[in-house]
Amino acid sequence: ATVVWVGINGKLGGILKAEDSLRPSAKDAIAKLQKSSIDVIILTGDNKGAAEMCAKNVGIDVHTNVFSSLTPNEKLNRITEEVQKQEKELVARKKTIFRTSGRGTIAMVGDGINDAPALSAADVGVAMGVAGTAAAMETAPVALLTNDLSRLADTIYIGRRCVLKIRQNIFFSVTTKLVVLGLTFAGLAGLWQAVVVDVGSALVVIFNGMSILREAEKDDARRNKISHEIGVKFAEEEKEKQKLLAERQQVHSHGHSHAHDHSCCDHGEEKEKKTVTPSCCAAAVTVTAIQNQALR
Questions:
Q1: 112: Cβ–Cβ under 8 A, 6 or more apart, which residues?
Q2: Whole-prediction pTM
Q3: Fewest CB within a 10 Å sphere: which of 1, 37, 91, 250?
Q4: Model pLDDT for residues 28-40, shown as the tens digit of each residue
């Protein structure tokens, strides 16, 4: 965020704060990622106050998962440290007898030129395609062609479902073939039983894989509904902003015209003491209070 101090005739007139607005889908996307047991960390070059406020709005722990005022090189070092940490944990697990999975995956999401080094160092670099710079798009192997961050959570979910289906299909196919092979050696199964089991297992594998398509259709319908609700909410907020801006401009123009009327009335009465009626004083005070509130 950037703070602007406004001075009028050498005196403080107000303070303005300019900051990037939060993406409408950010909070929902972070909630989905955390529900999927994914640790979300903020790496930003903004100051500590802006970073913590953003983290609070989206539900990220400000004490452990927020790193602010980082340079591009410091972002790169953070990503490199996380990758090395995962590598050490993998080496430690290899020494044990039971190891069912590999190391964790480090993903980096960014859209600026300052994020390019960190995007290249991460296991998976994701660039925001609409608002992203050319350097980020060229460096990251994955690009989101939309500003909707919930697509990232959906992509991870679909990837995990695909891996699960692949494991299920491999396990089912190998198990059925081993069973048929054992029955054949035992003399309990013939050629036609083996053919039926082979064709049947192939059909089961195909239908199991196609179940992802049905899930994708349901997810698309749900996502379209959420996008529509977000769009309606955003349109209402913009309408309220335009209405408030029009009211401020109307009050500002009314204050100028009121001051102009007073100057015209006082011009022909230089010898007399200039006075203002109580109603005019109340109107002037009201206009000043509204202008001060708008500056805040």
A1: 132, 133, 136
A2: 0.61
A3: 37
A4: 889 889 988 899 9
